[in-house]
Amino acid sequence: MSQRIVVALGGNAILTDDPSAQGQMEALRQTSKKLMELIKQGHQLVITHGNGPQVGNLLLQQAAADSEKNPAMPLDTAVAMTQGSIGYWLQNMMSEALVQEGIEKQVASVITQVVVDENDEAFANPTKPVGPFLSEEEAKEEEAKTGDKFVEDSGRGYRKVVPSPMPQSIVEYPAINAMIENDIITISGGGGGIPVKDTPQGYIGLEAVIDKDWTSAKLAELVEADYLLILTGVDNVYVNYNTPDQEKVEEVSIDRMKAWIDEDQFDPGSMLPKVEAAVSFVENSTNADARAVITSLENIEDFFKGGSATVITK
């Protein structure tokens, strides 16, 4: 049976060891081939993606070239620019994979604005890592030079952090829904969407980066998806991780998952936002059968053929 699936791609689906355009397109070529299995099974796909490394690198490029005649672009514009570039790469790689499979479908990217509250406490407490990993010494030099804040990220080095407000609504979701209804594979919500505030004069961009899993959850809710599929580096979520009592989580209710969140079972820098976003989608969806799945890109075909993953249900 055909299902409406919002697929949230993790960073490893886009960026590997080669940060060039060609390297990222090749990573997306391999990702697209894996997503073809869902298309071949008859499912409708809405694809979201992150942009943390890309937007951080773009900000460095902007800062390096900043001048009176060529001023650096603000963060909301940089998010839009990376939405465009990654969307362009992904729709081309998806189209290539469709041709190889002999499937006639259109793929389109939507520059997506996400409404946030300008009074969200995130603006006073930046926490979202963007850009490349730096050594502690390099991070301190950048802090002194730019005034930006850097924090240690999951033991891999130091990264710049920016505000990450919660998504309230998605401006373009009616258009996205119309595209889904017309069986168009839709790429939207890239990088968590462009953060904007809603004013009587229209939408105004804000300097922030929204967590892409939270935006994916909001989008899945608004388009009444059957599944929110959050792809990460592991096949399953674990509780009591790295202890003798480590337990793989397979099918679990939102109430049980909330209890584990309250027990601080999940790393705030990696798994926690994914789990919280997944719970939010299932809890707020008007679709009685809505499910959120957290698993790896490599595991999605097996899961939809009866295999295992972490599945959150009502």
Automatic annotation (TrEMBL):
<keyword id="KW-0056">Arginine metabolism</keyword>
<dbReference type="InterPro" id="IPR001048">
    <property type="entry name" value="Asp/Glu/Uridylate_kinase"/>
</dbReference>
<dbReference type="InterPro" id="IPR003964">
    <property type="entry name" value="Carb_kinase"/>
</dbReference>
<dbReference type="Pfam" id="PF00696">
    <property type="entry name" value="AA_kinase"/>
</dbReference>
<comment type="similarity">
    <text>Belongs to the carbamate kinase family.</text>
</comment>
<keyword id="KW-0418">Kinase</keyword>
<protein>
    <recommendedName>
        <fullName>Carbamate kinase</fullName>
    </recommendedName>
</protein>
<comment type="pathway">
    <text>Metabolic intermediate metabolism; carbamoyl phosphate degradation; CO(2) and NH(3) from carbamoyl phosphate: step 1/1.</text>
</comment>
<feature type="domain" description="Aspartate/glutamate/uridylate kinase">
    <location>
        <begin position="3"/>
        <end position="285"/>
    </location>
</feature>
<dbReference type="GO" id="GO:0008804">
    <property type="term" value="F:carbamate kinase activity"/>
</dbReference>
<keyword id="KW-0808">Transferase</keyword>
<dbReference type="GO" id="GO:0019546">
    <property type="term" value="P:L-arginine deiminase pathway"/>
</dbReference>
<dbReference type="GO" id="GO:0005829">
    <property type="term" value="C:cytosol"/>
</dbReference>
<dbReference type="InterPro" id="IPR036393">
    <property type="entry name" value="AceGlu_kinase-like_sf"/>
</dbReference>
<feature type="region of interest" description="Disordered">
    <location>
        <begin position="125"/>
        <end position="149"/>
    </location>
</feature>
